[in-house]
Design a protein that fits this description.
Ankyrin repeat protein; disordered N terminus; disordered C terminus; SKIP35; 31 helices; mainly alpha
C-alpha cells in the first residue's frame, strides 16, 4: 500500500510540475506508466494532455494490472495499438477478465493483431500455467473471428522461435503450436504449409549457427556477455530432438509428407517419426551410414532436411515460389549463402531471380556472387534488371544499405560493362530508388564520378611531382620505385581489393589517370588502349610501375581482411 501511495505521489508530482517548469517527455511517460498501473484515470488524461506519448506501454501496464477502465480510456486514442498491448499485458499478468474484455471490444483488425502477438509468445512461456492460459487465449481469439493464421504461423515459426525459445515446458508449447495450426486449417493452404516447412528448416539452421558464431567470436578474443549462470547471452541451443519435433508438427498438419505417404505408420508414430525424418535425409544424401544419432548430427542437418522435403517429399512441386519464404528468412538472418547454395544444387532455378533480389536487398555478398555465377546461361537480363531495381527501391521499405546494389554492379551483373554502367545511371535517376543508394550511385558510378576521379588523379599527380622537385625535401633522394610506391600503392590496393570484375566510375577515373601519367612520354602505351582497358589490365599496367613487394602487401591485406567490400 505504501508503494502505491509513493507511485501516486510521483504521478501527481509530475503533473504539478507541468506548468511551473518544463518536464521532459521521458518523465511524463514514466509517470504515465505508473498512472496506468495504479488505475488513476484522471492523472492518466492529464499526463497525456501534457505531452506523454507512450500509449502502448501504458496499455500493457493496464492489461498486466487488470485495470479495464484504463484500457477503455485509452482505446479512443490509438485503438489498434491499445488492443494489442493490453492483450499482451493480460497474457503476462494472467488476467482472464481483462483478456475477455479486450477480445470483446476488439474489431477484426484487433483480433488479428491479438492472434499474431499470442502466437509470437509461445516460445517465451516458462510455466504450464502460462502455456495453459496462452492456449485458451488463442482459442478464444480464434472463436471471436481472427483470420490472420498464416501471419501468426509464420511469426511463431520464424523470428519468435529464434529470439524467444527457452528450455522450459517444451511439450506444452508444441501442443499450442499444433492447436494454432489446427484452428487455422481453413486458412492454411498446402502451398503455404510447404513454404512454412522449408522456412522452419532455415529457422532451425539459424538457431544452430548463431551460437557457433558467438563461440567463434569468443575464441577470437572479442568481448561477449555472460549470464550469471555462465551461459553466453542468447546462445541457448535446443536439443535436436526438440527441433525435429517442431518440424514434425508442421509436416503432420500440412500437406508436405507426400514422400512418406506409403508409410502411414510414420505419420502417426510420433516417437519414431522424428528419428525417421532425419534418417531419411541422411540416407538420401549419403550424410550418414544408415544410423540417425541426433546428438552427434552435424550443424547443417536442417539444410539436409530442407533438401529432403524439397525432393523426396515433393514440396518443390507445390509451386515455383514455394522456396521464397525460406530464402526471405535466411536473408534476414544473414545465412542466405548456404541456403541458396542448397537450393541451387537441387536445380530450384524458377525463383533464382527472387533469391538474387533478396541477396541484394539484404547485402549478402557471398550469395550475390554465388548466384551470379550459378544461374544457368543464357541469363534473362530483364529478370536480372528487375531483381536489382526492386532491391534498390523503397516500395517494400528501404534496403539494408547500398552495399548490395554496389556489389551487383562490381560483379558486372549484366555481363557487359557498358550495359551495367548504363543501368547504374538509370538506377540513380529512378524516383523509387532509395536515397542512400542513389547518393552512392551518383558519387561513384555516374559519368560525373568518372570526371571527379580524373580530377582527383590529376591533382594527386601534381602534388607528387611538386614534392619530388622540392630541393629541401628528402623525398627526391629516395629510389624512384619507392617514390612511385608511396604515391600509388594506396590506389593500387583500393582497386585490387574492390570486389568483382568492374571498377566504379570514380575508381576507374583515378586509375586510368594514374596509368596515363606514369606512362606518358614512354611510347609504351597509347591513351586509347588505357581508356579501353578492363580492371585486370589497368591494374597490370600500374603494377609494372610498382616494386614487386607491393603485390605481396596487397595479397596479405586480402588474406587478413574479413571482407574486401565495405
Amino acid at each position: 500500500m505504501a508503494r502505491a501511495w509513493d507511485m501516486d505521489d510521483t504521478c501527481e508530482g509530475a503533473c504539478g510540475r507541468i506548468h511551473p517548469e518544463p518536464v521532459s517527455e521521458r518523465d511524463l511517460n514514466y509517470a504515465l506508466l505508473q498512472a496506468a498501473s495504479l488505475g488513476n484515470e484522471d492523472i492518466l488524461h492529464t499526463l497525456i494532455e501534457a505531452g506523454a506519448t507512450n500509449i502502448s506501454s501504458a496499455s500493457a501496464c493496464a492489461g498486466y494490472s487488470g485495470h479495464r477502465h484504463i484500457v477503455d480510456a485509452l482505446l479512443p486514442r490509438a485503438r489498434p495499438v491499445v488492443i494489442g498491448a493490453a492483450f499482451v499485458g493480460s497474457l503476462v499478468g494472467l488476467r482472464k477478465d481483462l483478456l475477455d474484455h479486450v477480445i470483446k471490444v476488439a474489431d477484426l483488425e484487433g483480433l488479428d493483431r491479438c492472434l499474431l502477438l499470442g502466437a509470437a509468445r509461445i516460445w517465451s512461456c516458462k510455466t504450464t500455467e502460462e502455456t495453459d492460459f496462452l492456449s485458451n487465449a488463442i482459442s478464444e481469439v480464434a472463436k471471436a473471428g481472427a483470420r490472420s493464421f498464416p501471419t501468426a504461423v509464420q511469426a511463431t515459426c520464424g523470428d519468435a522461435l529464434i529470439r524467444y525459445w527457452n528450455k522450459y515446458v517444451f511439450e506444452e508449447k508444441i501442443k499450442i503450436l499444433e492447436s494454432l495450426i489446427t484452428l487455422g486449417s481453413r486458412y492454411l493452404t498446402p502451398e503455404f504449409m510447404g513454404k512454412i516447412s522449408l522456412m522452419v528448416c532455415v529457422t532451425l539452421y539459424t538457431k544452430l549457427v548463431k551460437p557457433e558464431d558467438t563461440r567463434r567470436t569468443a575464441h577470437s578474443g572479442r568481448k561477449f556477455r555472460h549470464h550469471k549462470n555462465g551461459d553466453c547471452n542468447s546462445t541457448f541451443v535446443p536439443d535436436a530432438q526438440d527441433m525435429m519435433e517442431i518440424l514434425l508438427v508442421v509436416c503432420r498438419n500440412g500437406a508436405v509428407y507426400r514422400g512418406l505417404s506409403d508409410r502411414p505408420e510414420m505419420l502417426h508414430a510420433k516417437s519414431a517419426c522424428k528419428t525417421s525424418l532425419l534418417h531419411e535425409a541422411n540416407c538420401s544424401y549419403h550424410f550418414g551410414e544408415g544410423k540417425c544419432d541426433l546428438g552427434a548430427c552435424r550443424i547443417d542437418w536442417p539444410l539436409r532436411m530442407l533438401k529432403f522435403l524439397l525432393v523426396e517429399c515433393e514440396v518443390g512441386k507445390l509451386s515455383f515460389s514455394v522456396t521464397t519464404l525460406a530464402v526471405y528468412q535466411a536473408a534476414r538472418s544473414n545465412v542466405l549463402y548456404p541456403v541458396v547454395q542448397c537450393l541451387v544444387e537441387e536445380k530450384c532455378y524458377e525463383a533464382a531471380y527472387v533469391y538474387l533480389d533478396m541477396a541484394v536487398t539484404f547485402c549478402q555478398a557471398e550469395a550475390i556472387q554465388y548466384l551470379l555465377n550459378a544461374l544457368p546461361r543464357p541469363r534473362d537480363l530483364l529478370y536480372l534488371v528487375t531483381a536489382v531495381r526492386c532491391a534498390a527501391s523503397t516500395f517494400r521499405g528501404p534496403p539494408r544499405g547500398p552495399q548490395g546494389v554496389l556489389l551487383a554492379l562490381h560483379a558486372n551483373f549484366l555481363d557487359d560493362p557498358a550495359t551495367t554502367l548504363r543501368e547504374a545511371e538509370i538506377l540513380s535517376e529512378l524516383p523509387k530508388t532509395d536515397h542512400l543508394v542513389k547518393r552512392r550511385l551518383i558519387e561513384e558510378w555516374s559519368p560525373q564520378a568518372f570526371n571527379e576521379g580524373v580530377k582527383a588523379g590529376d591533382a594527386h599527380y601534381m602534388t607528387w611531382m611538386l614534392l619530388r622537385r622540392r630541393s629541401d625535401s628528402g623525398f627526391k633522394e629516395l629510389p624512384v620505385e619507392l617514390q612511385v610506391a608511396i604515391a600509388y600503392l594506396p590506389l593500387y590496393r583500393a582497386c585490387s581489393q574492390a570486389p568483382g570484375t568492374l571498377l566504379s566510375q570514380r575508381q576507374r577515373g583515378e586509375l586510368t589517370t594514374a596509368v596515363l601519367h606514369l606512362y606518358r612520354g614512354s611510347g609504351k602505351l597509347a591513351d586509347a588502349k588505357v581508356l579501353e582497358a578492363d580492371k585486370p589490365t589497368l591494374l597490370g599496367f600500374l603494377a609494372v610501375c610498382l616494386p614487386d613487394w607491393c603485390q605481396e602487401v596487397v595479397q596479405v591485406d586480402d588474406a587478413t581482411s574479413f571482407c574486401t567490400f565495405s
